[in-house]
Amino acid sequence: MNILTKEIIKDLQSKEGSPCISLYMPTHRSHPENLQDPIRFQNLTKELKASLLKKFSAIEVNTLIEPYEALSANSEFWNHTYEGIAIFSSNHLFMEFNLQVPVQEMVISADSFHTKPVRDYLQSMDRYHILGLSNEEARLFEGNRHSLSEIELPADFPKKITEALGEELTEKHTTVASYGGVGSQSSSMHHGHGAKKDEVDTDAEKFFRVIANNVHETYSKPAALPLILAALPEHHNLFRKVNKNPFLIESGITVNPSSVPPEKLKDLAWEVFEPEYIARIKKMTGKYESAKANDLGSDSIDKVARAAKDGRVDTVFLETDLIIPGKLSINGKGNIKKGNMDNPDVDDVLDDIAELVAQMGGEVVMLPKEKMPSQTGLAAIFRF
Fold first, then answer.
1. Cα–Cα dist 213/230, whole Å
2. What DSSP designation does 332 have?
3. Which of 280, 305, 297 lies closest to 357 in space, CA to CA?
4. Counting CB atoms within 10 angstroms of each CB, which of 111, 118, 265, 291 has the fewest?
5. Are residues 236 and 207 in contact, defined by beta-carbon separation less than 8 angstroms?
6. pLDDT 10s digits, 315-327
7. What is the CATH classification number for the domain harbouring 50?
């Protein structure tokens, strides 16, 4: 399974020429719900084949469909899905991605890839990381308002204190006895005098510094996601003392993450992060309202399309689940030609605008309908 990144979206944007096939489908993590997923995928594959046959020969279509049929029969793939999948393919490309959020079911063949849903997935303002921390071990999660998944840390990530400190670990640290087992909210109990506890606390400080640096460089910096700390109260203070990760938010979860199930951890995280999420949206949409009042913003699709073509869009807000069938004439005046999605030459106009804005150095922000500052499906802030 490939790992979806912003760089991959940029690479997909650079590929043009029919057919560029984009398939999205909601999936399930567990049995028996996931038994229906291959069947739904087969139905989408049939729908795709019927669309392609309107433009390409049977031989060409069979070649394009072959990897989809192979994936349909791959039980290993279907036993390890999350909440959704995205697949991009063309004559010389076939890439599949697991998504941690549900997606609207669709299959589109056009002269460019339909990337709006994965752009939303990567840029969505409700995504976050959770660092689950004790004085012995670190875990990392990625979540949003809908779901939470633990990230499998690579072998070279120093997730345990013994891996992080190695020979620097004080000898007396090994005399610390951990009580309570899995699910306990008590921290390690220290035997002996104060000096021994001081050595253990020094080890924890060194460990937290290593974890803070590694999470920042390996995950926070590339993904640019807010980081929520989940740890016992005494570990919050120590971690923040050594942390230099600017993505760590001020509020945190004051429990041992191993003491609560994932669903509860997700709820606790959203309690912490929802105010941050609302504040970020209000700040950005407030800039749009101010720009529109000064004739530097618009929610007219035609006007925004022309501005995008001229490179004048600084920020565009797009409604996540809305699709407007048509084709944006990039070589013309940015005008829009309406069409039907079952036509292999027709894409989503909003997706075309998103790609053009991104190519011109603008920012694309995906928002759910209820958070949009307009009723047309898009809103833009102009550079001039």
1. 17
2. T
3. 305
4. 111
5. no
6. 999 998 899 998 7
7. 3.30.960.10
| Residue 253 vs residue 341, higher pLDDT | 253
d(CA 114, CA 79): 26
Mean pLDDT within 349-370:
91
- Residue 370 lies in domain: 295-382
Same domain, 269 and 193: yes
Residue the block writes with tokens 């069409």: 339
Strand residues in 217-259 grouped as ranges (E): 227-230
Token duo for residue 68: 């989809």
330 or 240, higher pLDDT:
240
| Model confidence, pTM | 0.66
Best CA proximity match to 139, nearest among 245, 219, 233, 29: 219
User: 181: domain CATH number?
Assistant: 3.30.420
Domain C-terminal end among 75, 94, 115: 115
Residue 111 CB neighbour total at 10 angstroms = 15
Say how far apart CA 198 and CA 213 lie, in whole Å: 23
285 inside domain: no
Residue 100: C-alpha distances to residues 82, 108, 315, 320 (Å):
6, 21, 26, 16
